[in-house]
Amino acid sequence: MLITDVMMPGPEKDILAIVVNMTERKRAEAALRESEGRFRALTETSSLAVGVSSSDGRFLYVNKAYESLFGYTLEELNHLKASELWRNPEDRCAMTEAIRSKGFLMDYEVELKRKDGTPFWAMLSVNSIDYGGHQAIMASVYDITERRRAVEALRESEERAKALVRYAPTAIYEIDFKGKRFVTVNDAMCQTLGYTRDELLSIGPMAVLDEESRARFADRMKRTLSGLPVDETVEYRVLRKDGIAIEAALYVTFSVGGDRALVVAHDVTERKKTEALRRALAEQERLRLGAAVEQASDSVVMFDLDGRIRYVNSAFEAANRIPRDGAAGRSYFDFFAGHPSGPEIQSAVARGESWRGPVSRRVPDAGTIDLEVTISLAKDPSGTVIGGLATETDVTQKNALQRQIRQAQKMEALGTLAGGISHDFNNILGTIIINTELALLDLDLSDPARAPLPIVLQAANRGKELVKQIITFSRQKAWERKPLEIAPVVKEGLGLLRSTLPKNISVHEQIDPRSGIVLADPSHIHQILVNLCQNAALAMMDRGGDLEVGLCPVEVDAFMAVRNPDLKPGPYVHLTVSDTGCGMESDILDRIFEPFFTTREQGKGSGLGLPVVHGIVKSYDGAITVQSQPLKGSVFGIYFHRLDGAAPAAGIEPQVRAVGGRERILLVEDEETQRTSLARGLEHLGYRVTAAAEGRSALAEFRRDPGSFDLVITDQTMPKMSGLEMASALAKIRPDLPVILCTGFSEKVDEGTVGRHGIREIVMKPFTITEITQAIGKALRKDGAAE
Fold it and tell me: Which of 336, 363, 394 is the last residue of a domain?
């Protein structure tokens, strides 16, 4: 309650009071204060700039966002009018009039300015409100400067884009799928197709496509309008106005609704022609490559990652004796089954690695072939391994040739060694044999000292046979090789062998009597047969088995000749000796022709049997093959050159008996014990002997009295002057002088030596007294009778 006035009217001093009820007014004032408080609380935390001004333009309130936006504090704004914040004050007058008529103004764009004078664009929302009991204007201000700039930039960009599209060198157009029409086309589009812009806009896209492209375009529009996915790139054949067709690649950007699209079209006609030419060239190259692969001598195999064969060339068919359709679908890894490298090859391919190495493979009707295999990986354009390409080079002949070269080198070295051994060993054996024979002649038959001499002579003769085998192994040429029917010789040798073989070995023969004629020494044929059969018998000694000897004529063709470099196409006689014995491992097979190599127990094999066979066959320019597997036996094959015609009838050699004589003999021998022993033996038989240690001294002795000598016996291998050189020198002095040449091993002495330089006979060391006297008798033409 508010007492507004007090009066005391009369002397009694009475008091008169006027009382006004202020309750409602106080409540209204409190509600107003509370409303203003809530308004301020809401606007102070808002990011939107809010200001309240009176009708005369004075600021009553601004929030912090308003102060931040304009750069003024409320105190500073109290000294300003709202119109001073407008860049163009007349714009405020227009806004004020709008508010008066409507009472509010929404999203009104206007240009304002900050405290520093910087202009900016703002969007105003203005309302007329009651503020503090007075009519006021509340304005919310939103800075739209960046948005206006973006809109302007977009507008400028669109204008530039339109210009770029119009003048772009590439054909660009916009298409309406529903109306099946062009919306816009640029200049390049018109130039490419030869139409004006108006013509293209009037005829539409269907008119510029060929029939096949038109059908695809119709289907594409239908899918697009149905909301189905389509590729953003497509190629059509487009028809120019002059009827010429061009290939066009279209790159499509669809509108949001999908009923329109902006299309960039490239003329790819030349590219298509180039691609077609490239494909044609690639196809030609593929055909040439395919022809080359088909005609290649190496096997070629293409297979998947799991090893399944997709392709093999004709060389693979021929080498593996398998038809192409029989190989396709099989696992390539199956062809390495049982070979140590098989798992390694499969693992390498599984790891995505290449592989290269030697492999041997058993092939039906062709035995075992040696291959050099190279496996390369096939990859797709992304680099993913999708399979493999294998090339197989047949190195069977190459390996055989290398083995033969190594064997020939060993044989050459051993042959040189054999020459030295035979020379020295022959002299030793010759001395033993001759002196043992002389001792037997000198001792009385009842003398106990004679008892061991036959044993010594027997041992010396065994040594003599061993030297002969060494010489045969060393491939010294045979002196009495002649045409002969080989079948009877083999049958004869086999007949002699039967009785010497163990009872648990069955002998079978498959001898074709029409096998033909070969140029050979019968003793060599027997020696080959005996050594091979004895070797087979030793392989079956423990369990017994079957031994089969075969002989037949064969024709060696080019394929067989390639497999065995020792053979040439032509007629041959094929001798085979097979057994069912223990067989041999591959490492043993590589060494069986090495002299003195044997797998037998000591005393059961000299290690010379097969080397001797090898030496004889090589000296005949023939070939020897071996096939063997452990526990499955072995097969030896010998190829002799077959001659045309019939063999001459065998003559009967005259029998010659040992004789003595009184002739004077010039003996030339560099080995002292051999020279002394032989001189003593000949003198014991009545010959008069003059001995010399070397050729020059013997020649000097002969020149003193050339007519006094009846015969010359000379060693071939001597220092300073050989036996042949000395015989030549003697022949110049006395051409009629008979000469006997003694040799243990010499490449210079062969069947052509007899008859030259007075040489009448050749005697192989070591020899016995009987053998040398028989040679003396022939050389002096005594025919076995003493003069």
Answer: 394
- pLDDT by residue (tens digit) across 154-187? 676 667 766 667 777 788 888 888 888 988 888 8
Distance CA 631, CA 359 (A): 23
CA distance 119 to 165: 36
Q: Which three-class secondary structure state does DSSP give residue 153?
A: helix
How far is the CA of 4 from the CAs of 9, 25, 26, 34, in angstroms? 16, 15, 16, 27
CATH code for position 118: 3.30.450.20
The residue type found at 533 is C
Helix (H) or strand (E) segment spanning residue 36? helix 23-44
Q: Where are the alpha helices (DSSP H) in 396-485?
A: 396-442, 453-473
Instruction: Report the C-alpha gap between 225 and 233 in whole angstroms.
Output: 17
Distance (Å, rounded) from C-alpha 390 to C-alpha 378?
10
Give 609-658 pLDDT, tens digit per residue. Answer: 788 788 888 888 888 888 888 888 889 999 999 987 655 544 333 333 44
Amino acid at 645: G
**What sections of 243-313 are H helices per DSSP?**
269-295
Q: Are residues 635 and 486 in the same domain?
A: yes
Q: Is residue 388 part of a domain?
A: yes
> Both ends of the chain: CA-CA distance in Å?
197
How far out from the chain centre does Cα 639 lie? Answer: 37
Segments forming the whole domain that contains residue 437: 400-469
Burial class (CB in 10 A: 0-12, 13-18, 19+), 246: middle
The span from the CA of 645 to the CA of 517, in Å, is 8
The mean pLDDT of the chain is 80
User: Looking at the structure, do residues 589 and 491 belong to the same domain, yes or no?
Assistant: yes
Question: Residues, the chain, total?
Answer: 787
Q: In the structure encoding, which two tokens stand for residue 133, read together?
A: 């009991």
Looking at the structure, tell me whether residues 453 and 483 fall in a common domain: no
Please check whether residue 636 is in contact with residue 577, taking contact to mean a CB–CB distance below 8 angstroms: yes
- Strand partners of residue 103: none
**Crossing angle of the two packed helices 723-733 and 695-704, in degrees rounded to 10:** 20
Q: Which two tokens stand for residue 747?
A: 């490449």
Q: Verify that 214 and 81 share a domain, yes or no.
A: no
* 192 CB-contact burial (10 Å; exposed 0-12 / middle 13-18 / buried 19+): buried
